[in-house]
């Protein structure tokens, strides 16, 4: 185990954003743009407001920014609030093998630490890269050694601790303790129970981000932790590839504001509708064939945005009726009678063939029966945005503008996007955070209820 620890310490000490391949640099910038856009959009939710009020009363003031707010909080408080926003609309990045969302948990922790210690853009990107690489591997290892299906907060906190600890300049021994503290105190959560009963707990991301940066701070003070997942036998192959394989290049990006498991069905719908000139009014029945986890998503009429996101039939019906599944649908269209009527036409079936390919691939196919009794079948499709079925650069940029511009306005949206493209040139991360916290478009006050 000591050899493994040495390999991890070496990676954490020597990794540098400036030295990685151009593909990895671009992948990380795309991840940063996506998670910033998701976080800005997430400030429009009730969950964000509740957690911000709580954090303000419990953590007090500090040097770390809260999105859409003029106030500053302690690093741990800001990480909790911003991470809640990042995952609030379920549009944040993910990785197939961890069945979760690394960006929403590592970015807020690294950003808070970066502000606390006033680091440069290059230092911030190095720490963010480390956070992603450690978090993704922690998730893979966790799913190998633990029989239950745990949420992002359970393994993502380890990545958040690694990136935060890098900024805090922890020693190798302190970093090992930070990872052990984060794992031990993270949200060891029953994920499938939250799938069955959707709530603002979501993927345990807010608490996990706060736990990760808090673990690094504790380790800096001399607080000790257990050996982390990276000191297990299962970790060896993932430690050996550090600095050689960059898993940030394997991230998926979500075009829709709903659980990833519901999105392959939407792609199948997009294939059939134009191909056969089908319209919602002509559809009599839809059969969705999918994998067990997707079939476990709710099929009930949603009462709030969380129930709309962790739903298999609502996103499908929303796309069928409106042609999109974005913040507007999961915040403002919950009672749309056309969408609810379309939900009633959907039947769900588990496919053994598709089951066997999860989690490496999330797949679905559909059959549509029209009012004349004609049957139209789609091919088997995966969710758009996977690294092997990627969104184009244009689609990624378009997602950023679609989420940010309605809130920030075109000018500030442009400024934020351009700042991200040249972030390694910033002498201080404060340049980015000052843009993220401008009082734009009434964002401080105009909230949409869910």
Instruction: State which percent range the strand residues make up.
Output: 5-15%
What's the order of the H and E elements? HHHEEHHHHHHHHHEHHHHHEHEEEHHH
| Category from helices, strands and their pairing | alpha+beta
Major sheet size, sense and barrel closure: 5 strands, mixed
Instruction: List low-pLDDT spans.
Output: 440-450
Distance between the termini: 48 Å
Which descriptor suits the 3D outline? globular
Predict the CATH topology of the largest domain. Answer: 2-methylcitrate dehydratase PrpD
Radius of gyration: 21 Å
Q: Helical segment tally?
A: 21
Number of DSSP strand runs = 7
CATH class category label of the largest domain = Mainly Alpha
Question: What's the gist of this structure?
Answer:
The chain is α+β, with helices and mostly antiparallel strands. The protein contains 21 helices and 7 strands. Strands 3, 4, 5, 6 and 7 form a 5-stranded mixed sheet that branches.
Notes on the protein architecture:
This protein has 450 residues and is of the alpha+beta class. It folds into two domains: 2-250, 2-methylcitrate dehydratase PrpD (Orthogonal Bundle); 260-382, 2-methylcitrate dehydratase PrpD (60s Ribosomal Protein L30, Chain: A), CATH 3.30.1330. 54% of the residues lie in helices and 7% in strands. It contains 21 helices and seven strands. The strands form two sheets. Strands 3, 4, 5, 6 and 7 form a five-stranded mixed beta sheet that branches. Strands 1-2 form a two-stranded antiparallel ribbon. β5 (363-370) and β6 form a beta hairpin. The protein starts with a helix and ends in a 14-residue tail after the last helix. Mean pLDDT is 93; it is low at 440-450.
